Amino acid sequence: MRDLVERAGAPSAASGSILFGANSSSRVNKVQWAAAEACVEFSQVEEPTAALKSNDAYLKLNPKGTVPTWVECDAATPFVLNESNTIVAHIAEVGQTDGFYPRDSRTKSLAWQWQEYGETTLQPALSPVWWGVKFGSGYPLGPGSALVPLDEAKLELAVQRAVRAWSAVDDHLADGRLFMLGDTLTFGDVACGVHVNRLYQMGAGGPGDRFEHMGRLRAWYERLLERPAYTRFVVEPTRQV
Fold it and tell me: CA triplet 21, 30, 131: central angle to 5 degrees?
């Protein structure tokens, strides 16, 4: 297995934890941010997804051909994970930051609930808006991530869906909590936190100021911006897209 890790692009003397995936991927950003908050060190093989998909060794490590892939080389047989939310939760659990991984089973389940909401509801709702507003493209993209003609009517419907999806987060924060599960950042903030950055990269009030009424959501985002790891691994890569 270790030879596969090296042939996939890791250093020849691969050791420690290795993240495969490019900084342009929001799913890679999730893992980077979580690792920084949990004080888990890693090295990165920053290759575009297309390049990794054409790498036979990488496909043996991760037959799905997705990014990111997380490999821990601290044992004779490396440990491999390839779903971003799972990687984030694992990093939070093995990390050194108290509270980032809740120990109470119910609180832990709530963290997972918001991780899943971020990936299964917010991301699909926001992606057509992100590509439409930022790049003037329809969604889904064409082969090889090629831009496609934009349908303004479909974009308007996508914005409406995104407003409904983000309203659930704004309402959840109505009790004055600072983060998704209370006054402490947990891994339950990560998926939603990555996507809220893209929302506000389209304007201080979201695209077309359509999210301006969600003051609690914006305040949560402002608190995330105060965290150096969030700025470095989530905000800055998005500005370079």
Answer: 80
CATH for 105-234 is: 1.20.1050.10
pLDDT digits (tens, 9 = 90+) for 169-191: 999 999 999 999 999 999 999 99
Here the tokens at position 64 are 């799905």
Q: What is the pLDDT of residues 93-103, one digit of tens each?
A: 999 999 999 99
The hierarchical CATH code for the domain 2-94 is 3.40.30.10
What is the band of 241 on the pLDDT scale with cuts at 50, 70, 90?
confident
Residue type at 62 in one-letter notation = N
Instruction: Map tokens 């359509």 to a residue.
Output: 210
Is 0.90 topped by the overall pTM?
yes
Q: Contact, 179 vs 223, CB < 8 A?
A: yes
d(CA 53, CA 183): 40
Residue 48 has phi, psi (to 5 degrees) of -60, 150
Cis peptide bond upstream of 140, omega within 30: yes
Strands 69-72 and 17-20: antiparallel
First to last CA, the chain: 34
Q: Which residues of the chain are in CATH 1.20.1050.10 domains?
A: 105-234
Is residue 82 within 8 A of residue 69, CB to CB? The reply is yes
Q: Which amino acid is at 196?
A: V
